[in-house]
Amino acid sequence: MSTDVVNDHRENAVRAPDWCPLCRSDVTVHELDGEGLIFDGRTTDTHRLNETALGIWQACDGTHDARRIAELLTTQFDVSLDDAMEHVGRFLALLDQAGLFAPSPLCMNDRLER
Amino acid sequence: MIGRLARQPLRYTIGAVDVALTTSVRNLYRDHSQLYEANRVESDRKVRPHTIQIDVTPTPYSLRHRRRFLVRTGSGVQFEPAGRKEVLPYVEWAVNWEIPKAMPQYLQLHASSLEVDGMGVILPGASGSGKSTLTTGLVASGWRYLCDEFALVDSRSLKLHPYPRAICIKQPAFGVLESIGVSVRGYRHYLKGTKGYVAFVNPHSIRDDVVGRPCPIRYVVFPKYVANVRPSLIPISRADAAFRLHSVCFNLLTCDRLALDVVAGLIRGATCYQLISSDISATCDLMHDLVSGAAGNHAKSA
């Protein structure tokens, strides 16, 4: 994904199971033939996403938790829900470690319901 | 005579880059004038704001210390080559150093750049990847030369612009170029840091009408030299190419437009390859086939 991983306090943080990741709006994203490039101006890191990773990134809109994102993957690719959950979990952890998510203590859907 | 030389700068327009060199070092004055004779401009012409100013003076003679030379840029950067054979490489280096600061309207990539039939071709790669040798070979076979060190990409139009500086050839490549009729025997050899002995080839000595015009980039080809293999082209994705191009930007943070926006824009119009280069003639033939659309038989799947 990226050759430079940001090392900060999020490295060892554990997210709640119902955490709904929200992409930072201040990063630059380009889609090229189904793959993605993300540039983080804060760290000057550049991240390259393959087709699957780009799909996960685009689902991180603050309304989908990891399970929901994995379910979306199973509709696009021939993969079991358990495998998708594992891949999504690992990838979200990498993105989180790189500092690419905005603070989102509550899932947006939960916030609307409350 | 030398005193007059020191007062009057040598002024050049080298494609998109303006340079003003002031020096009292007679050998440097002679060598630089010969290399850039075709680029000289009148010294009384108005100096443009982005002109790169370079000043070279020798330190005073001393019985205790070896004489050195001071190569200074207009922005205050200073190099101190020790011997005469190192001075010209440092002057070239000083100009390269200043270009990102002086010309933020261009995204500057570490790549050779050429033009063929109105199409821009860039060869990004680290030192030692063979891009200067391949560039010289392609120029000798009819391609137009833009630069052996930089791809200058206009951040708005995304066009490739020329900076046809003297081509720097490392000693191990001398024989390779001789084999295709590009002689470096008439050129002085210089010492360029850890790269060893080099020669600077005036591109206008290869053939007339050698400098290309601004053009859109149509091919991005990453060369990697491997001895004794058949040259081949491996298609790579635009995202892969853009990621690699972004990592070889000289002015990632000082370009007047976001570098990734420029890279993504230019890559959308380009086809991208990894080139395994080998024998220079065979590699040039492969590149000819690529731009003429006949490279399908040579391209392997990624």
What is the secondary structure topology, with strand pairs?
The complex is a heterodimer of chains A (114) and B (302).
Chain A: E1 28-32, E2 35-40, E3 45-49, H1 51-59, H2 66-76, H3 81-97, H4 108-113
Antiparallel strand pairs in A: 1-2, 2-3
Helix pairs in contact in A: 2-3
Chain B: H1 2-7, E1 10-14, E2 17-23, H2 26-35, E3 52-58, E4 69-73, E5 78-79, H3 84-102, E6 106-116, E7 119-124, H4 131-140, E8 144-147, E9 150-154, E10 159-161, E11 167-170, H5 174-178, E12 189-191, E13 197-201, E14 215-225, E15 232-235, H6 238-246, H7 259-267, E16 271-277, H8 280-292
Helix pairs in contact in B: 4-8, 6-7
Could you explain how this protein is built, in words?
Chain A is an alpha+beta fold and 114 residues long. Chain A has four helices and three strands, in the order βββαααα. Chain B has eight helices and 16 strands. In chain B, the strands form three sheets. In chain B, strands 1-2-3-4-5 form a five-stranded mixed sheet. In chain B, strand 9 and strand 10 form a beta hairpin. In chain B, helix 4 (131-140) packs across helix 8 (280-292) and helix 6 packs antiparallel against helix 7 (259-267). The longest helix of chain B is centred in the N-terminal third of the chain and has 19 residues, at 84-102. The model of chain B is unreliable at 297-302 (pLDDT under 50). The A-B interface holds A 28, 30, 32-33, 35-37, 39, 44, 46, 48-49 and B 237-240, 242-243, 246-247, 252-253, 258-261, 264, 267-268.
Main sheet characteristics of chain B = 5 strands, mixed
Q: How much helix, percentage-wise, in residues of chain B?
A: 25-40%
Q: Structural class, from secondary structure content of chain B?
A: alpha+beta
Order of adjacent strands in the largest pleated sheet of chain B: 1-2-3-4-5
Radius of gyration of chain A: 14 Å
* Form type of chain A: globular
Mean pLDDT of chain A: 84
Biggest interface reads: A-B, 12 and 17 residues
Distance between the termini of chain B: 61 Å
Helical residues, percent of chain A: 25-40%
Please give the radius of gyration of chain B in angstroms: 20 Å
- Strand tally of chain B is 16
Uncertain regions of chain B: pLDDT < 50 for 5+ in a row? 297-302
Order of neighbouring strands in the sheet with most strands of chain A: 1-2-3
| C-alpha geometry of chain B | globular
Overall structural class of chain A, as computed from helix and strand content, comes to alpha+beta
What percent of residues of chain A are in strands?
A: 5-15%
Oligomer: heterodimer
